[in-house]
Amino acid sequence: MYFIGNWxxxxxxxxxxxxxxxxxxxxxxxRNRLVKIIYCPPSTLIRPMSKKLKNSRIEVGAQNCHENExxxxxxxxxxxxxxxxxxxxxxxxxxxxxxxxxxxxxxxNNKIRSALKSGLKVVFCIGETSQEKRKKKTYQxxxxxxxxxxxxxxxxxxxxxxxxxxxxxxxxxxxxxxxxIKIIHFIKKKYKNLKVLYGGSVNPKNIxxxxxxxxxxxxxIGGASQDAKKFIDIIKKTYN
Length: 240
Ligand code: 13P
Description:
By secondary structure, this protein is an alpha/beta fold. It has 10 helices and 8 strands.
């Protein structure tokens, strides 16, 4: 099971102090062979975090990248090769917070292909808005996002899908279990070997309900991942 922490635009160097707690927990956790932890901090923390996590088997990822795999005159941007250079092994692409700021499926596709070329593993986010859900367009939206996002991607071995309904991010709302099972099944039917994570308001309170969904391969965790105790609690409760 994957437990991926997305810190979003939170945290400075002092936030790394809380990691020792997670490192210690992970080392001593009996089921740790079943657990893969990945932290995706802001880009400014990738390097120092990688150093802190050295030898811990906890990996580091970025939250986005530019679609151009070469260096170029793109002020303020960072590409996948630069992320890899400072220690990232993964990158989140297609997060709804970036889609809402104008990132298209086509652009996401370019980013995914560029990241894979640079040797990063991709956490590819998809999800419908509340309006799309109300209009019963969920499956159509997810289909489009996946189809265009993975266009010309021949090998999906290094891709994980994170299903994050936009209406559940940061709201405390989660989908009904039977809906989630169906949606994950739908995604997996399209791409046989893809792992599918769930993201959106995952916390120590709702994890028992979420973990009972047996086709989920893990969780993409926002707010709760910034709190070491909550993050550890989520992992512990997934296994008992
Ligand atoms: P929350 O867990 O804070 O709802 O955020 C989810 C998310 O967007 C992770 O990428």
